[in-house]
Amino acid sequence: MIGVTDVGPMDVYRLLPGDNCGECGYDNCMSFATELLERRADVDDCSVLDEEGNEEDKRKLIELLTPSVRAVEIGSGENSFEIGGEEVMYRHEKTWFNQTATITDVDDEMSDEDIEEKVKWVTNYSREKIGEDLSFDAIAIRGKSGNPDTFGETVEIVKENTDYPIVLCSFDSELLEEGVEKLEGENPLLYGVNLENWKELVNLANENGCPLVLSANDVQDLIELSRKAKAEGLEDDKIVLDFGTNPSNLRESQKRIIELKRAAIEDQFDILRYPLLGVPATSWLVEENENEAAFMEATLGGMMISGGVDALIFHSDKAWSLMPILVLRQDLYQDPRNPANVDSELKEVGDPGRNSPILITTNFALTYYTVEGDCEGLDLYIYPVETGGTSVTASVAGDILTVDKIVNAIEGEGLEEKVDHRTIILPGPAAVLAGGIEEKSDWNVMVGSQDSSGIKKYLEENWPPN
Amino acid sequence: MTIEEYEPKKKEWSNKIEEVQMGATSSQGGTRKTTLTLGGEEQLPFYPDGKNEHTPVVTFDIFDREESLPGVISKHYEDVIGNPEEWVKKAVDEYGAEMVTLHLTSTDPKGEDTAPKEAAKTVEDVLEAVDVPLVIGGSGNPKKDPEVLKAAAQAAEGERCLLASATLDLDWRTIADAAMEYGHNVLAWTTLDINLQRELNRRLINYGVEKNCIVMDPTTAAMGYGLEYSFSVLQRIRMAGLGGDEELDLPISNGVTNAWGARESWMGNEMPQEEYGEDWGPREFRGPLWEVLTGLTMIMAGSDLLMSLHPRAVDVLKDMVDRLSGGRDVESSYQDWIREI
Question: Which of A264, A286, B102, B216 has the fewest CB atoms inside 10 Å of its own CB, making it the most exposed?
Fold first, then answer.
């Protein structure tokens, strides 16, 4: 069976009209084929495929391009997001595409004030890292009360306080129905189908066009639920699978994650080709106190992100336990095909002039972007010295960042023409190189902060030198 | 609708990872009371294809000098920092360390430049103080480390320690000689490059070091600072080894302590709030969690040895290994999480 990774431009091209008409916005059908594979274009961009007689080709093309794990859209409007849409089991085989949806919850037995507070916190939470805004994706509402009216009221409060997509959680179709009514047109994710309630829930989902979570602690039960749901008309782009997050016996949950991912990606078993949902929040059922629970919940979440689970529901409201999850997610969803180094050439931050400082660092992408980020709002130069992909500390320790290398770099770059001063600033961990650089060149060396987070303060206090 | 059946298949790999013993008992020429085995895997970590005989080992880092550590960590070791003998005892007796890594950072020529002979004395003292296997690390200085590790190896003769580390950028032959002469294992350290790892392993093996005396360290990047590179390099190495690559079928070690290089692990919450208007939460919990997530990600990729630092992190990582192995099989009815949390 072929996964999308084995599909090449020729396979796509064969199903295109071949007119090279340019209606899609690309020069010719071959370009369009490449763009389709890179997910930068959509099959619907080709109007010729919509003409009579081309239906079969269009259908085949969509099937060819549908990733092994189908994509499911949650929410509507500008905050909607996609989960799934994955082609590979291991990120190094290509890349992972849609980062794990990070969702945290409220329940309908919380006070109105508490609900409002948490919803606002989740909605406003954000932190910047490597030029990206890290934030949450959705809010889950648990029908803890079991009462449809109570649930409905909570949904209204949440809706008033956020424009984030919602996940409605109950095994009781009455509660979900109440919730769905309040969120008309908003495409909430509905949780969850089991062997008892599947018919009502699938019908509810179909009527409202909502995506739906099928929940079972057994792969065969998930197959049965999937079969039943599809027979009842649930569409392929509306199905999400909850494999059961056992907070005590992780081996069990891990087994199901692997089996489900293999079923979709390696075996192309059609009725399991859906994104997976984990619930690290179950940690709160087994841990003694709040901090322990939040800690274990984050640990469990981390385990599942590295396993390629597509969406996670948390319970914590603490930045200390959830911010690390957002960073881990950012890390593992980096595209491995992007280079790890930046070019070793003079970089400008802001609008540097003849009296602006020159910072020395290494050209390892992470080092460089961290330093650059710490210089936001300043006007200066950064020179990333070539260290073959190592950080400052590692390259100093390993004698890769050396006096000679820095001297050659600053002299070779013609820095004396850019600025009127003759001073470079080394990162703290490279202090040992200062003397040598001053000996071997005409440049003065200042030693900056130990960590680039101290750059702003350092420059405020020490630049310009007297 | 067609009736579709599906039975998940177990994957069978063609090769087994080498088993490396850490520590030697008196009948083996050492004085350790316990030994540990790394490696021996026949499937990917905690996969349902079978059960690997050995599980990842989580160890404690100790330093031979007054190492400056983030407050969140140093408060646990206040009474022992600067005293490696006491520190190692605390790690074993109070925190249950199964193995310890002694970092001889005082030998750094850019620092105190302690002589190899002195460092060897410290190694002796530490071996005397506890009965668990030992990893011995230099300072990372390529010119000094071979001499330091040679002296340490001699002082620890017969104890089957792990000498950290041989690299392509230093005199690895001296370290290999010391390992072979005095009965130790070699940690082969490269920087996130599979081909360089193969190269180093190949050189050691061709030089005469037995495969069951080599552990690989492909480098651990902290979460937020390149973790994904370590994760994927480890996964690729482990899959290559299981698939039959005889230059990569060795156990893997990770310097999880590197997580503390990330500012998010040690920085208080005032700076992010004032400078960026961001909430990072208190570092008391954030720090250890940063180390845990760094280490756990390595475990999920195939790590056999996690060199860690914060006692809380060691605890949680050990617990995770236990739970992933099927331990702590408590009957928990987590299915009703919606009503019960």
Answer: A286
Closest residue in chain B to residue A226, using alpha carbons only: B4
Using CA atoms, how far residue A366 sits from A238, A377, A384, B223, B272, in Å, is 37, 19, 11, 11, 19
Phi (first) and psi of residue A382, to 5 degrees: -125, 130
- In sequence order, the 6+-apart residues with CB closer than 8 A to the CB of B308 are B58, B59, B60, B61, B256, B257, B291, B295, B314, B317
Which of A303, A313, A317 best probes binding to B when mutated, by most B CB atoms within 10 angstroms? A303
Q: How many CB atoms are located within 10 Å of the residue B109 CB?
A: 12
- Helix and strand numbers (H, E) in chain A are 16, 17
Cβ within 8 Å of A, B 35-74: 46-48
Which uninterrupted H or E stretch holds A128?
Answer: strand A127-129
Q: In a structure prediction context, what are the per-residue pLDDT tens digits for chain B, which is 341 residues long? A: 455 789 999 999 999 999 999 999 999 999 999 999 999 999 999 999 999 999 999 999 999 999 999 999 999 999 999 999 999 999 999 999 999 999 999 999 988 999 999 999 999 999 999 999 999 999 999 999 999 999 999 999 999 999 999 999 899 999 999 999 999 999 999 988 899 999 999 999 999 999 999 999 999 999 998 899 999 999 999 999 999 999 999 999 999 999 998 989 999 999 899 988 999 999 999 999 999 999 999 999 999 999 999 999 999 999 999 999 887 666 667 889 999 99
3-state secondary structure of B252: strand
* Among B282, B320, B286, residue whose Cα is nearest residue B303: B320
> What number is the ipTM of this complex?
0.97
Interface of B with A in 286-305 (CB under 8 A): 286, 288-290, 292-293, 296-297, 300-301
Q: Are A327 and A305 in contact (CB under 8 A)?
A: no
CB atoms within 10 A of CB A185: 8
Q: What CA–CA distance (Å, rounded) separates B251 from B268? A: 36
CB contact under 8 A, B316 and A296: yes
